[in-house]
Amino acid sequence: MPEPVANTSRANFNDIETTTLRILNGFAIDLMAIPNVEDLFWYVAQKVVGKLGFVDCVIYQANADQTALTQVAAWGEKNPFGRSIVNPLVIPVGQGITGKVAQNQEPAIIDDLLRDQNYIPDTEPARSEICVPLKIGDRVLGVIDSEHPNIGAFGEAELETLTTVAAMTSAKLALLEEAERSSRRYNDLVVAHSELSAEKVNRKELEIRLSEARHLESIGRLSGQFAHDFNNLLTVISGNLELLEAELSNSDALAFLQDGKNAAARGAKLIQDMLAFSQKARLNPEVCDLNALAEAVCRRNERDLGSTVELHPATELWPVCLDRAAAENAFWNLMTNACDTASVNDRIFISTENVLIERPSSIVLSNELEPGRYVRVGVQDLGTGISDKDLQRIFDPFFTTKPAGSGVGLGLSMVLGFAQQSGGAVSVKSCPGQGSTFHLYFPAAPANAHTSLTNNP
Ligand SMILES: Nc1ncnc2c1ncn2[C@@H]1O[C@H](COP(=O)(O)OP(=O)(O)OP(=O)(O)O)[C@@H](O)[C@H]1O
Ligand SMILES: [Mg+2]
């Protein structure tokens, strides 16, 4: 390490100049690899100014609006704590020697501090001081400051050396600022790009859902009209069959008649499902407890279809206001579908729960729901699952993948129509090979509705 510059005689001046050059060269090489502003300040204080033979060094950084300087790095007696500064000094720009240098953007050498009106005495006694600004164009970024216990310790040589160090430091600061700006711009671009992509995907999904909804709505209108007319015809057919029954005594003729009545009854059931799908069913909503209703359908399912159903009822489930028979029919349809796909020993899981729908909602539903309280019924099976292609069509009336005679393709159409007519919605999640979960959402009845809850499911 060279001797303090201020105490140097002419004899070893050349040696010092060589050492100084070597240190500055090293700084120029290392400068490229210094990654951030904080490392730069510490490097300059400890490995540049520190090695150049100055007794101490303090570097101050200016704030964004150039009104104050904060101590950010130090070397020598001013920095007894290694690479950390306890209670960093903050100096208003314009005050003291450092504040004046920042304000004037010009270096200063003070030969005798005790005679200088700007000197703010420090804990370390000092008699002379050198201070150079760090700046980019007209903007001051900070100052490099050094003090010495002797009077007149700093001259032209020290000023030249420190000004070079300050220029190199300022150039690197400008590069780091630019890198920071570029990285911010790049991050902004990445965020904007991902927002745009998400927006595109959302819009595409919305368009698909809208076109599906329109498609179903137009089929609904058609089938609603058809179902009404057909229902009237069925009423006439059934009525006439009843009349004929009263007149006939021949057993063969009565058997034919019974076949006719059965067919008419099946037709009537189909029509009911179609009316439900087109949301034109006559509903008689009443306050009911979906736990009790689900329990009843489960037991009926176990009895009639022999399946194993696991019921997970929520405690303190909110009551709902629904047409009981239609709700039972909807659960029944979901459960028969689940049984149809499940293997012999597979269980079917039924759950009920209270949910709060918010906007925007992360749940993908058949139709948008007003934010609020809903009761959700889930029917889950571990069966074949549904392919993505079929998922687009399962709610279409008469869509079925079941063999002729096993399914008509109206079950889910009815479920969807009933849920929507009751102010709710449907959602489905399915993974081929792993089963499916259907959820029905129904608006919770107003808070005082539970008082009129009946115990009968
Ligand atoms: N849980 C399920 N697992 C696998 N596929 C299902 C499930 N539920 C429905 N599907 C598919 O959706 C189609 C339509 O179901 P939907 O209940 O509307 O009609 P269906 O069961 O075929 O006939 P039905 O009118 O007798 O109910 C089914 O044929 C089947 O392909
Ligand atoms: Mg079905």
Description of the molecule:
- With 457 residues, this protein is of the alpha+beta class.
- The protein folds into 2 domains: 5-182, GAF domain (Beta-Lactamase), CATH 3.30.450; 281-452, Histidine kinase-like ATPase, C-terminal domain (Heat Shock Protein 90, 2-Layer Sandwich).
- Helices cover 46% and strands 19% of the residues.
- It contains 9 helices and 13 strands.
- The protein has helices spanning 13-31, 37-49, 96-104, 156-247, 251-277, 290-305, 324-341, 388-391, 411-421; strands at residues 57-62, 68-75, 90-92, 108-110, 128-136, 139-148, 285-288, 308-312, 320-323, 347-357, 372-381, 425-431, 435-443.
- The strands form 3 sheets. A 6-stranded antiparallel sheet has the order 3-2-1-6-5-4, sandwiched between helices. Strands 8-10-11-13-12 form a 5-stranded mixed sheet. Strands 7-9 form a two-stranded antiparallel sheet.
- Strand 5 and strand 6 (139-148) form a beta hairpin.
- Helix 1 (13-31) runs antiparallel to helix 2, helix 2 packs antiparallel against helix 4 and helix 6 crosses helix 7.
- The model is unreliable at 1-6 and 451-457 (pLDDT under 50).
- Bound molecules: adenosine-5'-triphosphate (ATP) and magnesium ion.
- The site of magnesium ion has 5 residues, from helix 7.
